[in-house]
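Milestone 3.1: sequence recovery, worked example.
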């Protein structure tokens, strides 16, 4: 039995990279499609078998240890039993056509976009079907050729000497990588992969009611697989940008309504600009800071279900910092007429803003 290191023409302390380079050089020289001589075919088999052993660090280590209970010339008991109980049976060549990978794309939306939904034209960099070969991997006018090394089976059988005698093993063909065929003339556009990287536009209707962190699944919009395999799934991860006026609580919109002291005392009506148009708001007489004014059906459209949430406005009574002399006189008169008590401590209550927040979330 020949020494695998001598077969590949490398030293026993050669690195894995040196072993790989030596094998590739010999394979190009001895491959039956390049060198049809019988001697070259036999040498190619020996070179391929040597690389199968030395190209894998674990099997190389077993080979270096030599025949033992732990490994019989690079072939251990586990491998032998695998061959006896079905490991040596080949399921045929593997397909070049492989499913594509899934993709994830982040989509930034404004709060207004999620109230009623929005249509977007998304531009993505992804793997698409090669238009030159249509996924065939070969140059126009050429086709795949059956591998002469394995006869198109994708596997080769070899005899390996072990403690139990000669054992026949079946391994993927190194000449065709188990495909059973080779590409004599790769497609010049995709280099024999059947797909290329390109930018494409995907139209998508994003439904109303989505929120940050939600993922929308688009089957068949991910990357096209090798050799034109079916495309994976594109996932859109939603991110809703911060809004300067409104925030969101489920399907409700939250905001703060600043009310002047006279309007808080006497009451008032006002028109404010909502996220989707004008909103009529009524401030009742005697309104306090922290009170909540609710406007029904002016929130976010529900993602699953009918209707919309509410618009809830927390009231903040604004006290003027400076007043003229006449206003000051009127306020003093008001204080005297209402017999307002002097500032004093009260029983513990929640802070104003915590109180407003909790009321908004009821």
């Amino acid at each position: 039995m020949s020494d695998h290191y001598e077969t590949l023409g490398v030293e026993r302390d050669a690195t894995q990279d040196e072993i790989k380079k030596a094998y590739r050089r010999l394979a190009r020289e001895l491959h039956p499609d390049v060198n049809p001589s019988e001697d070259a075919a036999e040498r190619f088999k020996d070179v391929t078998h040597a690389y199968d052993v030395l190209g894998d660090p674990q099997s190389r280590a077993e080979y270096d240890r030599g025949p033992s209970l732990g490994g019989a010339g690079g072939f251990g008991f586990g491998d032998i039993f695998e061959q006896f109980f079905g490991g040596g049976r080949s399921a045929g060549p593997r397909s070049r056509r492989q499913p594509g990978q899934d993709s994830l794309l982040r989509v930034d939306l404004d709060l207004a976009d999620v109230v009623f939904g929005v249509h977007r034209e998304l531009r993505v960099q992804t793997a698409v079907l090669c238009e030159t070969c249509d996924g065939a991997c070969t140059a126009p006018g050429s086709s795949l050729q059956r591998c002469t090394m394995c006869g198109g089976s994708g596997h080769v059988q070899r005899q390996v000497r072990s403690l139990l005698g000669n054992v026949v093993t079946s391994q993927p063909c190194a000449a065709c990588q188990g495909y059973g065929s080779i590409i004599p003339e790769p497609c010049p556009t995709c280099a024999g992969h059947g797909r290329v990287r390109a930018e494409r536009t995907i139209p998508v209707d994003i439904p109303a009611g989505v929120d940050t962190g939600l993922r929308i699944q688009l089957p068949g919009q991910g990357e096209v697989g090798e050799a034109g395999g079916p495309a994976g799934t594109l996932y859109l991860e939603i991110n809703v940008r911060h809004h300067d006026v409104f925030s969101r609580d489920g399907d409700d919109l939250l905001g703060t309504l600043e009310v002047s002291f006279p309007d808080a005392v006497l009451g008032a009506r006002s028109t404010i600009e909502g996220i989707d148009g004008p909103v009529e708001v009524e401030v009742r007489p005697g309104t306090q800071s922290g009170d909540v004014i609710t406007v029904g059906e002016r929130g976010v459209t529900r993602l699953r279900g009918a209707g919309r949430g509410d618009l809830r406005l927390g009231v903040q009574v604004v006290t003027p910092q400076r007043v003229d002399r006449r206003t000051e006189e009127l306020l003093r008169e008001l204080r005297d007429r209402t017999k307002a008590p002097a500032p004093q401590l009260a029983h513990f209550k929640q802070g104003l803003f915590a109180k407003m927040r909790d009321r908004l979330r009821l």
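The domain at 103-128+198-240 is CATH 2.60.260.20 (HSP40/DNAj peptide-binding domain). DSSP finds nine helices and 15 strands in the chain.
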